[in-house]
Specification:
The protein contains 3 helices and 2 strands. About 9% of the residues have low confidence. α1 packs antiparallel against α2. A two-stranded antiparallel ribbon has the order 1-2. It is mainly alpha-helical.
Length: 100
């Protein structure tokens, strides 16, 4: 009976453009790519006549999402509708004031 010992294999180094880049840079590039694709999708939807309006929960009316709103929302981590509204003194996420 013969005994074989496993041979150690040299670790494979990843090859490719992004495999040699720092993680933070790959994250930024992925975020920008996602923002561009999302904005392109929104522009196609606009061209097809889809209304681009959104509102926060509890809001009385929706505001139009501007061109570039999805890109800005994606990159800043905010929702597109919150970046298109003007801030009130109580803040953009405060519930509406009760009516008398």
């Amino acid at each position: 009976m013969s005994v074989t010992t496993p041979q150690a294999q040299a670790p494979q180094t990843p090859s490719g453009l992004l495999s040699t880049r720092p993680v933070w840079l790959v994250g930024i590039l992925a975020t920008l790519a996602g923002a561009v694709v999302t904005e392109a999708f929104a522009l196609v939807a606009r061209a097809a006549g889809v209304p681009m309006e959104a509102a926060s929960p509890g809001a009385t009316e929706a505001a139009e999402i501007p061109v570039g709103g999805f890109f800005g929302g994606w990159c800043s981590g905010r929702s597109p509708e919150s970046s298109s509204r003007s801030s009130s003194p109580a803040g953009p996420s405060s519930p509406p004031a009760p009516s008398p």
